[in-house]
Amino acid sequence: MPAPAPGYVVLLPVKPPARGKSRLVGIESHERADLARSFALDTAESCLAAAGVGAVLVITDDSYFAADVARLGAAVIPDGVSGDLNETLVQGAREARRRWPDLRPAALCGDLPALRSADLDAALTAARGFEAAYVEDAAGGGTTLYTAPHDRFRPAFGPGSAAAHRDGGAHPLDGDLHSLRHDVDTLEDLEAVRRLGLGPRTALASVRVASLG
User: Fold this and answer.
1) In the prediction, which pLDDT does 33 show?
2) Which InterPro entries match (predicted)?
């Protein structure tokens, strides 16, 4: 299959790592922050390497993380509506349209530390056949990716997001897409995705956590 043209801008919302991933229980706060930062950086790097991605726009209020992800090649803006993920994504989509009017927005979870660019490309290529589309997470009921043209971009992340996106007219994308379906909220999730192959920063951060070593 030929590589897709770079027709998407990935919107990557990232909570400040010091406040993110509260469900990673049983480890020290600095270890949790290190893992959260690593998840997001590995996710961003995989997005930047995808053939179908023309730009990555990270939305975060953490200046240290912003500098780290900018060094990878992502654009960064502050989160003007912190606390409302869907409004954050709408804000990001508006800025993306201003910067890259020809790129279609694709909202992605920032906690996909095993993400492979090939899986992301496969999903984005499949999404071209639909007005709006989403990828359901491995646990079922959640969403890891949502994309629609700017005039139909209505993300509905949160509890029951897969059904909310479907009810809003988005098409569920089929296929294995294993690395794209496995977001990480708990240490058990992290263990589950280890077999898929963790990104380099997450692999390093995870061995520093005593309970995972």
Assistant:
1) 86
2) CofC, Nucleotide-diphossugar_trans
**Amino acid (1-letter code) at residue 4:** P
Strands 53-59, 75-77: parallel, antiparallel or unpaired by DSSP?
A: parallel
Tokens representing 168 are: 């809003």
Q: Under the phi-then-psi rule, with left for phi > 0, alpha for psi from -120 to 50, and beta for the rest, what region is 197?
A: left
Task: Tell me which residue of 2, 10, 34 sits closest to 115, measured CA to CA.
Answer: 10
Written as one letter, the residue type at 116 is R
DSSP string, 82-149: TT-HHHHHHHHHHHHHHH-TTSEEEEE-S--TT--HHHHHHHHHHHTTSSSEEEE-TTSS-EEEEE--
Q: 205, 200, 208: which is closest to 46 by C-alpha?
A: 200
* pTM score: 0.92
One-letter amino acid at 97 equals: R
Which residues, including other chains, have CB under 8 Å from residue 64's CB and lie 6 or more apart? none
**What are the chain's domains?**
8-208 (3.90.550.10)
Q: What is the pLDDT of residues 72-83, one digit of tens each?
A: 999 999 998 878
The total of other beta-carbon atoms located within 10 Å of residue 211's CB is 10
